[in-house]
């Protein structure tokens, strides 16, 4: 069938809404491959499939997380430069001292890169726990701010005092009045003056998923009476000049700019009023919340945001300035703790699709037979008589036959072969109805539901629980797009399922193409490796993921752009994902003990004469070898998968075998036996 217009990469760009979420960091090249670039300059773009091939050639297995360190650096610079520009533009008389909250991505290499890229801007780090503080104290450049949030015990306060003694500009943000005593005690003992911050409980309601992080019932922060209590206490100690910072945080992924503006205005009032009470305030810390447009719709939907980075920054600067002008107080230095917006874009998870579950596929021929049960013939009649006018009626007939067959089977009146025919014919009926639906005048709810079930499920080599915990836990959307074949029309629609045994391990909600009933447009599998990219994975996913079903941390490569290199990049570092023995050891299995137990069992078999000693040794070796393997599916296309999986509806159409595909670079295709 000739198509009107050949599919182009522009069509793919539109379909997957690259403009919407890619912030111009991602594109598609003439080969139909996804690319990464910092500016819209195609000549400097990295072909993501080059990286994927490179990774395979190094023997690194899928799934692999690619970190584009240049994006990370760019995000840090962009945040700082945008603040500097807005400060200049508004004639604002404070400076920007941003901090990166490491809880958003604590990986040392990520934090190191951020600290390094932030050095020219005196960009600092934030810690919310003792562990994070230990990391931050060591890693933070000394002229930048160190901010300590979260609940703190005596030992954490002593650690903070230690940081002050080391010369860090370390502000401890008091989240509970009782923390003040601990802080004062620790700093006195160390002989240093504290830099104190206070978190205020704003009344402004957040927006988006974390709106409950604010308001009177929030988990964090001091109420106004408590703040006055803190002031009294500081005055009594003669330490009013030690209160340096006002902090608020209205939750992550704030999707509506009005909420952010309201919060900044409220926070700025606290700053101004306290400043007038004679406290030595120098900083206003607006917390995190700066969003990421995961679904690319630029709306106030939960996975989106209705503003840009520039708008946010400009609103912060302008709103604080307005309040300070009205209150006649000096403009404070501005601090933000944006995490998500800095790290989300740099990480891309590459996942190989290794198969599909297709509705109605039958690997055996199920032709008409004389002695088949009547119900089979009836279903066949429904299928034959199908027209665009009787879709609902035929569907209901089909359902009835299916149920009838089920009852017959339970009572023992239907054989396996007839049961197979009924199931197969029913699916064919549904598939044919699905094809005719666009021609129908009226489509009922149940037919629409049925149509959803007709879509393919693509089996993807990853664990949702390890790599996309927020997709499972809070239904967050991530942009997903094939990394190649983007110059071909993605003719199929599929939901994605992972390799855990958990039926929650699936994705049926996609940022692009929302109307399509929980499916992603994908290409038909042709036996060659097929790769999907899960984009914007850099924030919160890494340490929130778990080892459900014992799928562990994935392999990582860190990529840098480099015009000198033949492919325009180099891989700076690879970090091995967890081996099976590593995840087992997380849950208290020692590989040594496991091997010992297997060896004892094998020895017993030798004693009993069931195994020869050499066989026993070989079994133990094999067991041990698997302990060292990667936790994910190690899959190469096998000969009988080198053709498209047959669909029931295609059965009649398959006459000649399809051409043999060429093996992909870096992969060996096993010999046909
Ligand atoms: C989590 C957190 C942040 C980071 O928020 P983002 O929305 O990721 O920018 C900042 N500050 C505090 C206190 C936090 O708890």
Q: Please count the beta strands (DSSP E, at least 2 residues each).
A: 21
Helix residue percentage: 25-40%
- Looking at the structure, the CATH topology of the largest domain is Lyase, Ornithine Decarboxylase, Chain A, domain 1
Tally of helical segments = 22
Task: Work out the count of structural domains.
Answer: 2
**Whole-Å distance between the termini?**
36 Å
Under the CATH scheme, the architecture of the largest domain is Beta Barrel
Bound molecules: pyridoxal-5'-phosphate
> CATH class of the largest domain, anyone?
Mainly Beta
Low-pLDDT windows of residues: 637-673
Q: Which of globular, elongated, flat, extended, rod-shaped describes the shape?
A: globular
On the 0 to 100 scale, the average pLDDT is: 90
- SS strand fraction: 5-15%
Question: How would you describe this protein?
Answer:
By secondary structure, the chain is of the alpha/beta class. The protein folds into 2 domains: 52-79 and 345-577 and 630-673, Lyase, Ornithine Decarboxylase, Chain A, domain 1 (Beta Barrel); 92-203 and 216-250 and 263-289 and 310-338, TIM Barrel (Alpha-Beta Barrel). It is built from 22 helices and 21 strands. Strands 4, 13, 14, 15, 16, 17, 18, 19, 20 and 21 form a 10-stranded mixed beta sheet that branches. Strands 5-6-7-8-9-10-11-12 form an 8-stranded parallel beta sheet. The protein has a 3-stranded antiparallel beta sheet with strand order 1-2-3. It is globular, with a radius of gyration of 30 Å. The protein starts with 8 loop residues before the first helix and ends in a 46-residue tail after the last helix.
């Amino acid at each position: 069938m000739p198509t009107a217009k050949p599919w182009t990469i522009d069509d793919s760009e539109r379909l997957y809404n690259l403009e919407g979420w890619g912030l111009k960091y991602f594109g598609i090249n003439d080969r139909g491959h996804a690319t990464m670039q910092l500016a819209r300059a195609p000549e400097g773009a990295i072909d993501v499939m080059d990286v994927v091939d490179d990774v395979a050639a190094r023997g690194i297995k899928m799934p692999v997380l690619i970190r584009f360190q240049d994006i990370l650096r760019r995000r840090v610079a962009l945040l700082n430069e945008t603040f500097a520009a807005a400060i200049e533009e508004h004639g604002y008389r404070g400076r920007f001292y941003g901090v990166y909250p490491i809880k958003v991505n604590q990986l040392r290499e990520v934090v190191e890169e951020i600290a390094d890229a932030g050095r020219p801007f005196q960009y600092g780090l934030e810690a919310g726990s003792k562990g994070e503080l230990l990391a931050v104290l060591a890693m933070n450049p000394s002229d930048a701010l160190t901010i300590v949030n979260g609940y703190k015990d005596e030992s954490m306060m002593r650690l903070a005092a230690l940081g002050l003694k080391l010369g860090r500009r370390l502000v401890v943000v008091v989240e509970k009045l009782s923390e003040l005593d601990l802080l004062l005690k620790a700093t006195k003992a160390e002989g240093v003056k504290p830099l104190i911050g206070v978190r205020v409980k704003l009344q402004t309601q957040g927006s988006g998923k974390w709106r409950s992080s604010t308001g009177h019932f929030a988990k964090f922060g001091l109420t106004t009476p408590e703040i006055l209590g803190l002031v009294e206490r500081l005055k009594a100690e003669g330490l009013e000049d030690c209160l340096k910072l006002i902090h608020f945080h209205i939750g992550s992924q704030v999707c509506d700019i009005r909420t952010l503006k309201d919060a900044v205005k409220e926070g700025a009032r606290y700053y101004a009023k306290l400043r007038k009470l004679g406290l030595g305030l120098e900083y206003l810390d607006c917390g995190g919340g700066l969003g990421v447009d995961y679904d690319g719709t630029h709306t106030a939907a939960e996975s989106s945001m209705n503003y840009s980075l520039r708008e946010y920054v400009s609103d912060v600067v302008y709103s604080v300035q307005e309040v300070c002008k009205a209150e006649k107080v000096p403009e404070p230095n501005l601090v933000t703790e944006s995490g998500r917006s800095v790290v989300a874009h740099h990480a891309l998870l590459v996942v190989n699709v290794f198969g599909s579950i297709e509705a109605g596929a039958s690997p055996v021929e199920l032709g008409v037979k004389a002695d088949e049960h009547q119900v089979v013939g009836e279903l066949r009649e429904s299928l034959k008589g199908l027209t665009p006018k009787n879709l609902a009626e035929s569907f209901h007939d089909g359902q009835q036959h299916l149920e009838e067959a089920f009852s017959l089977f339970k009572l023992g009146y239907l054989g396996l072969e007839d049961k197979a025919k009924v199931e197969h014919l029913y699916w064919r009926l549904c598939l044919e109805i699905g094809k005719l639906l666009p021609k129908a005048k009226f489509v009922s709810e149940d037919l629409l539901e049925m149509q959803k079930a007709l879509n393919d499920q693509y089996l993807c080599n990853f664990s949702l629980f390890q790599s996309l915990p927020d997709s499972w836990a809070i239904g967050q959307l991530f942009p997903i797009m094939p990394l190649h074949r983007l110059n071909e029309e993605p003719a199929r629609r599929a939901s994605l399922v992972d390799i855990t045994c958990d039926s929650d391990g699936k994705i049926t909600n996609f940022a692009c193409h929302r109307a399509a009933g929980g499916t992603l447009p994908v290409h038909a599998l042709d036996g060659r490796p097929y790769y999907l990219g899960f984009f914007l994975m850099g924030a919160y996913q890494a340490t929130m993921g778990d080892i459900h079903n014992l799928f562990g941390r994935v392999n990582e490569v860190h990529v840098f752009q480099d015009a000198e290199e033949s492919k325009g990049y180099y891989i700076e570092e690879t970090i091995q994902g967890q081996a099976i023995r590593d995840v087992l050891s997380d849950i208290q299995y020692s590989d040594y003990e496991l091997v010992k137990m297997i060896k004892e069992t094998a020895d017993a078999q030798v004693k009993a004469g069931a195994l020869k000693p050499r066989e026993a040794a070989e079994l133990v070796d094999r067991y041990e070898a698997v302990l060292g393997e990667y936790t994910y599916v190690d899959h190469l296309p096998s000969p009988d998968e080198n053709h498209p999986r047959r669909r029931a509806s295609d059965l009649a159409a398959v006459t000649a075998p399809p051409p043999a595909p060429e093996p992909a670079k870096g992969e060996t295709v096993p010999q046909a036996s």
